[in-house]
């Protein structure tokens, strides 16, 4: 079951070819996107996701997204969804056809959530550390690298996943050349030690996490200390627990890192997921 709505409000058959073959989102990855979890017909963190879409579009110098149009587009997907209590809602915004009139392409699509994702929520994942190939100091002086933008250029991220699979791992945690921890290809890294949750800052060239943000808000109300600051690999490995936060997978525990089994964090995982769910 899929639902596809174009940005102009047209509800379309998801099986019908619609995107021009010269669309720059396809030929050059010149566009941005967001993926939002919908539960019971309610999108989670829609505002922060639309904010991030606008930030990413600005970094790519795309036309400013029409927020009202996107909100209508989202609502139409929700109104037409018949595929169950949960779905992944994907928003895609590209520069449009290379030989078009300059208008961007935009659409929202509702997608079912796969069993593999659902299983990982419960059982946790294995992860490997991979070099992302840049130093965080370059973020400010090289904006054209688009570090921190959620662009459609995900070929490196998908290659990282294939490498992880080839060495028997489920997930990846990227590391900068200075030895600091960055993020996963599609997630933010969160560690827990004592009553403190920690994640790495967007200034490192990573995406500002919407799910991570929701978790931290709930945790702070429950008395946890939260920190957004640089983290070394040593600090990551010394943490009492490691989690990956993403919209569709929610809070997923890492039970094995670089082949080393981590201390059992299943009880803490349940507690953090309960905190996250309390936001909704």
TrEMBL record:
The keyword Lyase applies. The keyword Calcium does not apply. Its EC number is 4.1.3.38. InterPro entries: Aminotrans_IV, Aminotransferase-like, BCAT-like_C, BCAT-like_N, Class-IV_PLP-Dep_Aminotrnsfr. Keywords: Lyase. One of its GO terms (biological process) is carboxylic acid biosynthetic process. One of its GO terms (molecular function) is 4-amino-4-deoxychorismate lyase activity. Gene3D superfamilies: 3.30.470.10, D-amino Acid Aminotransferase, subunit A, domain 2. GO terms for cellular component: cytosol. Coiled coil: none annotated. Belongs to the class-IV pyridoxal-phosphate-dependent aminotransferase family. This is 4-amino-4-deoxychorismate lyase.
């Amino acid at each position: 079951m899929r639902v596809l709505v174009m940005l102009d409000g047209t509800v379309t058959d998801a099986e019908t070819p619609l995107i021009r073959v010269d669309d720059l989102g396809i030929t050059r990855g010149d566009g941005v996107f967001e993926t939002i979890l919908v539960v019971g017909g309610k999108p989670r963190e829609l505002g922060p996701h639309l904010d991030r879409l606008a930030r990413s579009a600005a970094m790519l110098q795309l036309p400013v997204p029409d927020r009202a149009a996107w909100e209508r587009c989202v609502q139409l997907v929700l109104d037409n969804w018949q595929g169950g209590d949960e779905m992944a809602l994907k928003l895609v915004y590209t520069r449009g056809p290379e030989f078009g009139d300059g208008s961007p392409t935009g659409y929202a699509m509702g997608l079912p959530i796969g069993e593999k994702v659902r299983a990982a929520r419960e059982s946790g994942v294995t992860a490997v550390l991979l070099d992302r190939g840049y130093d965080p100091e370059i973020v400010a002086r090289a904006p054209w690298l688009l570090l921190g933008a959620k662009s459609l250029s995900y070929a490196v991220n998908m290659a990282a996943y294939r490498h992880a699979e080839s060495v028997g791992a489920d997930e990846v945690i990227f590391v900068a050349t200075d030895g600091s921890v960055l993020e996963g290809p599609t997630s933010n890294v969160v560690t827990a030690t004592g009553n403190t949750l920690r994640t790495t800052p967007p200034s490192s060239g990573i995406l500002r996490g919407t799910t991570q943000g929701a978790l931290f808000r709930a945790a702070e109300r429950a008395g946890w200390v939260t920190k957004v600051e640089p983290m070394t690999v040593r600090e990551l490995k010394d943490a009492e627990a490691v989690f990956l936060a993403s919209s569709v997978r929610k809070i997923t525990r890492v039970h094995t890192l670089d082949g080393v089994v981590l201390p059992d964090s299943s009880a803490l995982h349940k507690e953090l997921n309960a905190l996250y769910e309390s936001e909704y």
